[in-house]
Amino acid sequence: MTREISFDVFDPVLRFASASFHQPRPLEVWIDGRLERTVRLSTAPAGLAFAMPAGRSKNTVRLSTSGCVSPKELGESKDARCLSFVLQGRPLYRASLYDLTSDGRETRDLSERAGTLTRDLVGRLQGSRRQPVGANHQAPLDPELRKRLRSLGYIR
To answer: 55-102: per-residue pLDDT in tens?
Structure first.
C-alpha cells in the first residue's frame, strides 16, 4: 500500500522535518510530477530541504512511501489507522486562485502566475484559522459521550 501526500509550495526552497513510524523507510520526493530524490527516513525526525525549480512561483510536491503499520498491529493502542511517516514544520495546502468576474466556472487557475498574491492570501487564511472564535470554557461531557471518547483513546 502506497501512502502519499501532496501540497503546493510557493517558496524557492522547501524545508521540513520528517520521520518514519516504527521502522526506517524510503520516501520519494516528487516535484511537479518529476521524481526529485528518494531519501531514507529513520524513526527520528530529520531536517530535509529541496530547491524548487527556477522560473515557477508555484510547485506541487508529492511525498510518497510504500508500506505502513498501525499502532494496533504493534500492540501500542487500538488505533488501526495506517501510519507511515510524519511531517513537521510545513503547512500543507493546495492553493488555487480564480478571477470569478471573468472566469465564473473556475477553469483558469491563476495561482502560479499571481504567486505573490496567492502567497499573501494563503498566509492570511492560515493566520485567521489560529484566532479563537469565542471564549474558552469547559462544558460537562455527557457520560455516554465520555465513555465513547475514552474507548477511542481521546481521553483517559
So the answer is: 888 899 999 988 777 777 777 777 777 767 777 777 777 788 899 999
| Cα 89-55-29 angle, rounded to 5 deg | 40
Residue 120 lies in a domain: no
- What residue spans of 49-100 are helical by DSSP H? 71-74
**What CATH code is carried by the domain that includes residue 48?**
2.60.120.260
Following DSSP, what letter does each residue of 67-117 receive, concatenated? --B-HHHHTS-S----B-EEEES----------TTT-TT--S--TTTTHHH
Question: Which of these, 98, 100, 104, lies nearest to 118 by C-alpha position?
Answer: 98
Residue 100 is assigned to a structural domain of this protein: no
pTM of the model: 0.65
Q: 1, 68 in Cβ contact below 8 A? A: yes
Is the sign of the CA dihedral 24, 30, 8, 98 positive or negative? negative
Structural domain total, the chain: 1
